[in-house]
Amino acid sequence: MSNYLIGDLQGCNATLGHLLETIGFSPSTDCVYFLGDLINRGPDNVGVIKRIMSLQGSAKCILGNHDLHFLSVEKEIRPLKNGDTVQDILHHDDRSKMVNWLREQPLALEVQGLLLVHAGVHPNWDRELTLQLSKEIQNALSTNDYVEFLLGMYGNDSHPWSTDLAGMARMRFAVNAMTRMRFCDEQGRLDFLAKSAIGSQSEGFFPWFDAPQRNTSQGPIAFGHWSSVGGLHRSDVICLDTGCVWGRSLSAFQLPSQNPNANAHPQYKLDLHTPLPSDHLIEGEWISTPSMEASEIIFNE
To answer: What is residue 195's predicted lDDT score, i.e. its pLDDT?
Structure first.
């Protein structure tokens, strides 16, 4: 059995199919974890969702900012933006089925000791709080009145994280951190202006994974969202967004095979008191395939 992590798909279904063939993915024995932004900007959003849904328990997903944006567009809370390509879902006979499936997905997961999020984990959070916040948002999206959540979800809150935050303010901060964050400062405030490479941030801000005294620094985290640092591979973080929708590549990361008779590698034990060695990369194998949608995306623009 193998577990695979795959970065931002953004509607690139043809490339996804090719990547799954390349890694020899078997739904009967393997499991694939998608790190959010399943849809939007690419040409075949319906194909992506239907492919993942067909894998049933062999595929697990977290939501990204584009997925949440679509849910708001679908309820006419937000308008379509330039470059949005989710009209294929909006006009499909199975629209409601796909929307309801998206609403059931979390914002964070764990596999083999890795914490999985779309954008990042706030430096003041530990892994347990991250998973708890994900569950709170998943529950809000799963209720019949989830539109109330979508209405309150937007806002560039400039205040730092506080355990005193409650209700919609707490969930809005969590959504921003787990689906939008790239940079933050020492006080834990998020920079919503910088969206490109490291170095583009405002003075006093750091990439979230380099923030001083980050509470999750002892456990590895896999994320997507940030194509300009895609391929980042350290002992504590790995970024799986390698810019497929921009014509680069779609990447999978195969985690070490699970053998119940073998001792677990120390990297994957949930020992949050022993920092990971700085010279030891998160163990696994990269597999990438070139984007097959690039020419179509450029043509549509």
So the answer is: 87
